[in-house]
Amino acid sequence: MTDKLLKAVEHPSDVFLRPGRIPHIWCPGCSLGSVTNVIIEAIKQSGIDSKKISIISGIGCTGRAAGYLNFDSFHTTHGRAIPFAIGLSVTDPERKVIVISGDGDLASIGGNHLIHGARRNADITVICVNNFQYGMTGGQVGPTSYEGQFQTTAPYGNVEHPFDLPGLAYSCGATFVARWTALDVRRMKETIIEAILHKGFSFVEILGSCPTTYGRRNQLREGLEILENFRKRTVLKHGADPTKTEISKDGPIIVGKFVEIKDKSTLTDNLLKVQRIAKATKARGL
Amino acid sequence: MSETIQKEEDRTVLTGEYFTTGNLAAAEGALAAGCKFFGGYPITPSSEIAEHMSYRLPQVGGHFLQFEDEIASIVSILGASWGGWKSMTATSGPGYSLMLENIGLGIMTETPCVIVNVQRGGPSTGLPTLVGQQDIQQTRWGSHGDYEVIALAPNSVQECFDLTIVAFNYAEKYRLPVTLLMDETLGHMSEKLIIPTKDEIKVINRKKPKDDPSIHLPYKADDDLVPPMATAGEGYRVMTTGLTHDERGYPVLNAETQEKLIRRLIDKIRKNKDDIILLEEYKLEDAEIALISFGISARASKGAIELARKKGIKVGLLRLITIWPFADEQIEKLAEQVGNIFVVEINAGQVTREVQRAVKGKAEVHGVFKYGGAIHTPEEILSEIERRIK
Ligand SMILES: Cc1ncc(C[n+]2csc(CCOP(=O)(O)OP(=O)(O)O)c2C)c(N)n1
Ligand code: SF4
Ligand SMILES: [Mg+2]
């Protein structure tokens, strides 16, 4: 009887989740569960051998994603997912390395690695769930918080201007850049498939809902309210100039696939090229 | 020399006799140990290691990457190690300081890799081009939390080569980042280096799991307290985290799991101390006074011993080749033999305090310090001995 019951609730994605790791730590109304599910679907549909997939996360609520996924998965330190991913990716040109982490992790403490990873056109995919602040540590402002946003370390409203992540990634050299909100599950999935299959540095920003530490301080009490707010403001614009996609408090949220450049050599391409040159050079003494 | 291009295997171990520097010897030692990835950031006095690796690694099918900082460098070599490649970085004090958090990640996730620290005078920017031995305690305690580390200190160009291989072997055998504590003088001085043939070099590789991936527990240790290591792409669905974790690699945040994990991480080094601790005993048989030293300072110490013995003072040397784990027992035994121990080091007493602890009051311990910028002269050491022993 219980066996049957258990069978009945098995989800087709269960094999991609670590046995015994669910329930997850994420709050009700958080979009991280559904985003993780979309990533699983995308990996499945990409047709890539699951042995060739590695998932890397930094630290944060989003950073917990790696630990739930049943691939080779690495939960690293705060901000350092990208250099870990680069070291891992260059050891096997066929390996698909996917970084899943938060806005604070990737754009604040790890910002240096983000811009240099993009500059190198390293052969990795970076999925950044931007919930506009630091969820895990209780809702402090971060580098994507907009001016005037209320957070625990901005009780009078944020005094700084935010990074526009697609613009940042693009201007640093990323060759695939896209943004969706957590609501756009179907298009997000298609984009993530393309991003994983893309050769070079692909960057996908997902605007996520964090009711617990963002929403309730900013008149968006429920996760659904945040998503509804996204829906109202979303403007679909494939090919949009990623230097003009900045998000403000109430302005439009431009989503779509902004950039796809196919002819730029990747870091791995160039490393392999250097190997060929080096192997052909004559030996010289020490 | 003939025009033929050597095959890949022929180029990993450049068997022969050379006159070269400690930095180049360390780089060649890494290659001989099977290192295939180097991630680094330039810093004096270590940069020649990175430069040489950028030239040599692509020849042997490896990769060199210069990163945006030392944090990325250390993390990248952890990533490469999980890709199944032996990996290394090289730096000096300021860079080592930046690496510390992620050396902790390497310890927690049990990731084999090697860090060369070519020490210079500190703190801060200090003496970029001059010798220091001031990172001894930083290596031991610099990352947060409780753990054991392995650190080795060569004292010749030959040992820079030999001990880099040993460092890789320990890293692979005990699954942790191992530090090679060089210094500016060693890194830049030139002397003879003999690179043996590939067959003569003992190389240890990490244990691989043999069980079925469906029942594999990535952090279940064998009797030696070291778990076999699957790497990415082998079908084991590697699970790693810097969080406290159980044998499955799953985060379990409670005191019981912490006790079990940290105890094992500490014990895997402590219980294998006899295998890890390397020492050189020099003229200790009849010694009434002992010097304890390491690295470049041990060479000056030997000079002082010659001078002392000419004067009829029976001095010998215990050279610490392995600095961490510390040779407590051997030093306690030495204290029972000699009345006075002089610790010669280019810092304000970082090894001296360990010796004081180890001797358990059985001998007088004197520090012979320099704060960086120059190595001791044998005369300086001798005069210190004569001043204190009347
Ligand atoms: C070196 C270091 N500094 C600070 C922290 C504390 N910390 C953990 S998660 C986090 C912020 C996470 O924010 P984000 O990346 O946006 O992820 P979210 O939780 O919002 O998904 C911080 C500051 C840490 N773990 N390590
Ligand atoms: S704090 Fe926010 S981001 Fe973190 S799990 Fe809760 S809702 Fe999600
Ligand atoms: Mg966040």
From TrEMBL, chain A:
Keyword Oxidoreductase annotated: yes
SUPFAM superfamilies assigned to the protein according to its UniProt record, in alphabetical order: Thiamin diphosphate-binding fold (THDP-binding)
Signal peptide stretch: none
Protein name per UniProt: 2-oxoacid:ferredoxin oxidoreductase subunit beta
Residues annotated as domain Thiamine pyrophosphate enzyme TPP-binding: 60-206
Gene Ontology MF terms in the entry: oxidoreductase activity, acting on the aldehyde or oxo group of donors, iron-sulfur protein as acceptor; thiamine pyrophosphate binding
BP term (GO), one: organic acid metabolic process
InterPro entries the UniProt entry points to: 2-oxoacid:Fd_oxidoreductase, THDP-binding, TPP_enzyme_TPP-bd
Keyword annotations from UniProtKB, A to Z: Oxidoreductase
Protein source organism: Candidatus Heimdallarchaeum aukensis
Pfam families named in the record: TPP_enzyme_C
TrEMBL record, chain B:
Domain Pyruvate:ferredoxin oxidoreductase core stretches: 287-381
Name of this chain's protein: 2-oxoacid:acceptor oxidoreductase subunit alpha
Keywords recorded for this protein, A-Z: Oxidoreductase
GO biological process: organic acid metabolic process; sulfur compound biosynthetic process
Organism of derivation: Candidatus Heimdallarchaeum aukensis
InterPro entries: 2-oxoacid_oxidoreductase, PFOR_II, Pyrv_Fd/Flavodoxin_OxRdtase_N, THDP-binding, Transketo_C/PFOR_II
Keyword Transmembrane: no
SUPFAM superfamilies (UniProt xref): Thiamin diphosphate-binding fold (THDP-binding), TK C-terminal domain-like
MF terms (GO), sorted A to Z: oxidoreductase activity
Pfam families tied to this protein: PFOR_II, POR_N
Residues of the Pyruvate flavodoxin/ferredoxin oxidoreductase pyrimidine binding domain: 28-262
CDD domains, sorted: TPP_PYR_PFOR_IOR-alpha_like
